Amino acid sequence: MPKMKTRKAAAKRFKQTGTGKFMHNRAGGRHILTKKSAKRKRRLGQVAEVKSTENSRMKACFPYGL
After folding, report:
1. pLDDT by residue for the chain (66 residues), tens digit each?
2. What is the DSSP-derived secondary structure letter of residue 43?
């Protein structure tokens, strides 16, 4: 049976921690920043953990991990 392929679009958007959790960048931090508060903009610069409900999708995208 051939090897399964990693979804490259997902590989560019997610990183995996040492414990196996997936992290992603937050949406909304690229433009139209003048109306957003400083606190909100700081939070948008941080990475966030992928929700546990999406873990099955992550496993499908990364059959061998990242």
Report:
1. 899 999 999 999 999 999 999 999 999 999 999 999 999 999 999 999 999 999 999 999 999 998
2. H
Element (H, E) at 24: strand 22-25
Nearest to 60 by CA among 1, 11, 2, 25: 11
Q: Are 54 and 5 in contact (CB under 8 A)?
A: no
The backbone torsions φ and ψ at residue 23, rounded to the nearest 5 degrees and listed phi first, read: -115, 150
DSSP the chain: -PPPPP-HHHHHHEEE-TTS-EEEEPSS-SS--TTS-HHHHHHHTSEEEPPGGGHHHHHHH-TT--
Which residue has 């997936």 as its token pair? 22
- The ranges assigned to domains in the chain are 8-27+35-61
